[in-house]
Amino acid sequence: MEALNFVKLLSYGAIGLGCILAILAYLLLREEQRQTSPRKSILNSIYVFMGFSLALSIFGFGAEFWKDSQLTSISEVQEDLDNSRETIERLSGELDEANQELSRIDSKLSSLRDVVNALMEQKEGKVARLKELQPGTSGYSELVAEIQMDLARIDEGIRDAINE
């Protein structure tokens, strides 16, 4: 009996305690069998004690099994969480790039709007000037030719601005 290290057995938790109780039940049974006439009430108590130690051992095994399965589940959840973080970081980087591209396009579009508006104002001014001209006045055809060339340049500027 001295060879058993009860402290080491207890370090295994409920399984160790169940083992110690089973050993004690065995020792009690052996002691009761040494009696000339075994007492029924003591035997029943020993059997209850043995049943309790067996139930405690089964509970200990079940708890260890459940703990191992929970550790596996936790590691799987941790792996999924790490994968999700990587995906979020990647998508965040892509979103930042897309926002920068959108900002650059918006800036360019705003600049193009300004250019087109300026060219349209010039064109409207030329059209208004053309409406004020009287066909019978001197220099009418030269002025019309000049305005046509200006309008053609403005149209070309608008096309260039749109194609950028």
UniProtKB/TrEMBL annotation:
Lineage: Bacteria, Pseudomonadati, Pseudomonadota, Gammaproteobacteria, Oceanospirillales
Coiled coil, from the record: 74-115
UniProt keyword annotations, A-Z: Coiled coil, Exonuclease, Hydrolase, Membrane, Nuclease, Transmembrane, Transmembrane helix
Residue spans crossing the bilayer: 6-29, 41-63
A GO molecular-function annotation: exonuclease activity
Name listed for the protein in its UniProt record: DNA repair exonuclease SbcCD ATPase subunit
